Amino acid sequence: MPTPTLAEQVAVISAAATEDLSGIWDLGTPSATIEALFDLLPALIDTWATAAGSYTANWYDDLREERSVKGRFTAIVPDLGDLGADQLAAWTTDAILVDDPDLARSRAEGGLQRRVTNTSRATVMTSSEEDPGATGWQRVARTGGCSFCVMLASRGDVYTKKGSRFGAHDHCNCSAVPAFGGQPTPVRPYKPSDRNITDADRVGLREWLKANSGGRASKSTESKSVIAERHLPQLEKRLTELRSLGMSEDSSPIQYHLATIAKFRVQLQS
Known about the structure:
This protein is mainly α and 270 residues long. 59% of the residues lie in helices and 5% in strands.
């Protein structure tokens, strides 16, 4: 039986995180589900992201030994700081408030999966960048993955620059793998001829990019005041709706929205 890949093992960890979240969907009322989201997601993300990072570090060290890479090095699990648990809970809340349980569940589970899996990717990326025996890292797409992921992986790029980003979406099972010096790269570039790239392919890719970027500019190109102006109306509307559900002022969802609204109002005035 083939040995499970890193992506398959991390998928098991992500599935365990999703299972731990499953109980909140049967709490009976929107207010109870929203409260549980804000209370549970931070702990779940912290627990299972740590598990994914630790597993990946052990996997990296074992792979390094198996490949007989010269020199000593121990894989690094980076501190990723705030993984956005409250933002994920707020985004999921929008779907709950419009009574779309399927969308709410997809958002919560997809966002949880992405945050857990990102810790695994970051562990490989950071370790590959710091490891004297590695030349960088590469992206591996799972079989049957979306066209965008397959396209990125098929380029076969070896990323060597520290801080290089790993573009990923919710429910994305792509992984990062190290490229060790003096050894064949794990992913060979695929270069189709122009005849294989149809107009339909180009249109499809443009549509995917449009659908997944939301038509919005990168945060790096927007001032804080512009971001605040764009998000404040939605936050204030959501706060009113949460209060209409009877939530107390000291509940986690209400306190998060009050703090975020206050921050954005300050940014608008600055």
